[in-house]
Amino acid sequence: MSSTPSFNAEEHQKMLRSYFNGNGFSRWASIYGNDKLSTVRSTVRQGHAVMMDQAFAWLESLNLPKGATILDAGCGTGLFSIRLAKNGYRVKSVDIASQMVEKSRQEAEKNGVAHMIDFEVNTIEEVQGHYDAVVCFDVLIHYPAEGFVHAFENLASLTKSPIIFTYAPYNRILAFQHWLGGYFPKKERRTTIQMIRDNQMDEAMHKSGMSIKKRQKISFGFYHTMLMQAERG
Ligand SMILES: C[S@@+](CC[C@H](N)C(=O)[O-])C[C@H]1O[C@@H](n2cnc3c(N)ncnc32)[C@H](O)[C@@H]1O
Question: Can you give the pTM of this predicted structure?
């Protein structure tokens, strides 16, 4: 595959941890919260909500028993974890940024579901355990192919059931715009979105013993993502 020779996993994690405990925390906590937003960010909030509704519908269609345990890898402020807990699932909520985990915990307490959720500051590459399903939304978009494959292998090893996740498929026009300096207006810019080519996705599936069963493009204003469901075999 065309790997990223300069990719340094440790440095990459350090950069993400620092961003999501700093500017990234304020930025995403306001997008995922109720603050008044600019038009650009407001489309991101709405697009994210559309993605979460679709992902939740896919998860429910698995007919897992209530009390099944779901890993929310890169849980952010806990939006999906709390939704899962409110619907009777047990949840393991993991995030690289302690500020995100703390915010998740506070939100879960406010919503009366903290007892259904086990919180942990950890990474998608290192988290352990066994879960009935894994979800990972808008996290892998921050990983170039080499890191993506490695992180996906770990997530796949934690479940016999599906992984529902999002990623950014390679797109020639967006790649050009990124090269020009980012497709977000300057003041709205966030961490770089890493695009994954089809052959790199195939490699991630092959290495993890999974294959793609469902895919749905979600596009809403400035929010673009590909929602995927991968299953073993
Ligand atoms: C854009 S937010 C998405 C949050 C949440 N999944 C959602 O969709 O509401 C990305 C999150 O991934 C977390 N993250 C980034 N890299 C991570 C890693 N290697 N392991 C765990 N979490 C990570 C960030 O701290 C941040 O909370």
Answer: 0.93
